[in-house]
Specification:
187 residues, alpha/beta, Urease, subunit C, domain 1, five-stranded mixed sheet, three-stranded parallel sheet, 8 strands, 26% strand, elongated
């Protein structure tokens, strides 16, 4: 047996995660103008931008006002508002956060927190646990913001038994009588 060497360039996930965090922080924290006018603009320039449709813009410029992207394009194609805060992202890659739509998150709070931080480090923004969340930790943590971590969602406990073939005796249907919780995902 032999190994095939990949000719793909390696890149560090840390700049991607940091740039995504900067964009998210700017989008969520830009102050609203008190006179009802548009919020102050933050301009991010110089990054390689992977858009949500998969297209790539090298030396991109994108503008965030309030909680919205107002302009996205190549350098020179975007009108930068006067007085905008400019953030240089040269050498960075910015992309939408990844949603991991099927995983089994840890059942202990400390382990789940570490797992969510690990997911965010590699560009994940949301992790969805499907069907093995015994206890309440999945429901408690879904509304928490984990420091430097992805958000978590849960489908709750198994409805018909666990994946190991056991029965679901003693477990309530999520969102059903006596559960006290509503699931993030229907089944």
């Amino acid at each position: 047996m032999y190994r095939v060497r990949s000719e793909l360039p390696h890149f560090s996930a840390l700049p991607v995660a940091l740039a995504s965090s900067l964009v998210l922080a700017a989008a969520c924290s830009a102050p609203e103008a008190s006179d009802g006018a548009a919020a102050a603009a933050t301009v991010f320039e110089g990054a390689r931008l992977i858009a949500g449709d998969g297209s790539v813009i090298e030396d991109a410029v994108f503008i965030v006002q309030g909680d919205q992207f107002t302009q996205v394009g190549s350098s020179g194609d975007v009108d930068i508002p006067q007085g905008a805060t400019v953030v240089d992202l040269s050498g960075k890659t910015v992309m939408p956060a990844i949603v991991n739509a099927h995983m089994h998150l840890e059942l202990e709070r400390a382990a789940r927190t570490e797992q969510l931080q690990h997911i965010a480090y590699y560009g994940g923004g949301v992790a969805i646990s499907l069907g093995l969340d015994d206890g309440d930790i999945g429901f408690e943590m879904r509304s928490e913001l984990v420091d430097e971590g992805a958000q978590s969602r849960t489908a709750g406990r198994p409805l018909l038994g666990d994946e190991r073939g056991g029965s679901s005796s003693g477990r309530s249907r999520i969102g059903g009588p006596g559960s006290g919780h509503g699931e993030d995902l229907g089944r």
